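User: For my dataset I need records formatted as: sequence, then structure tokens, nothing else. Please produce one.
Assistant:
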Amino acid sequence: MSYLSKLNRSKILNINVFGFLMSLFLILTFYNLDTIKTGYLNQARYEVTDGTEYRYLYQPEVLDKVKINKILDKYGKLSLPEDRNRADVADLPALDMIIQVYGWDWTGIRDVSAKKFYQDRADIIRSAQEKAGSSREGNSNGTFAAASLSEPIRIGYAEGWKNVNSGMSQCVFIVLVLIFIVLVPIFNEDEALGVDGLVKSTKFGKRKLSRIRIINAFQLSSLLYLAAVAIYITPIFFMYGVQGADLPIQSSPQFFLSMVEVNYFEQFLINLVIGYVAISLMTGITLLISVLVTEVYTGYALLLFTIAISYAIQMSKVFFLKHYVGNFLPMQIAEFNSYYTSFESYGGISTIIAVPSIAVAVLFMLLLFLPKWINKRMRFTS
């Protein structure tokens, strides 16, 4: 059994092909790193070239009454947003957070207490929840309740974690495509090699081989995913460091209004788990397609069709289609940032819990019926 499993794994993805894929992924990772550095350079700030300067510009501090009023007094007379680039780089995160609460016009806004500032922030969040709930069957409490909406937020340097988490979706997307390409032929190779009749004539026929192929498919997809993530995060952490892992994600203006109360390290772990759910679901779907289609090229055509449908649904303005179909496609499951910024819910349950949980349930049902579909195909082709 172990020998057959090892042999089948090498047929699905031999060491040379695996090495080639990882080398390709490494090239793409360094391209991504160059894109990150270009993004910092495009900010047109003479103090910043590749973002590593933030390690010295961002100091650990708290967005409390002193910091809030310092920003209000210092930049209250600026004509925002036109003069935003005149602000000190070190003040930009706090400046952008205050803009999210008070907008661009700060006329008459002075001497704000931390309690008042965070209460205004909480009002904006609740308003967004109510707006989301009014168009989503009344589910307005579908996000995590933050530990304390009035607690001052710690801010500081965490560019390594920010860059890793922001690009994680692209990393998973590439792995999803690779998994589909590698696994589509898994149940068609016997017919392609002309040994289908020979395999069926053996003691156990194709039943044991089919079971091994399903196990191998998930083993290889897991290996691809973990290897790709390791390759993806290493250069970024090497360049930008791992400082700030314990800072709340709300310290980034992107997630300042998020109700998911986690730090950057926890966000990475959550993304890693949800990404694995997406990978596993794609593996299950690919196995199903491999069973249903008799031509490999038909399977690859279905891949393009799936990607096109996924993006079409997400671009659609039909809520039912996006909410109950689009959110559960593997491509969309891997859109991690939406879990922290969206106020959607499913019966009052946050998308960050509901979507992965339902996806796992769908995968379980898929694996439950997959052997029956395989047996049906065997009877059809015999």
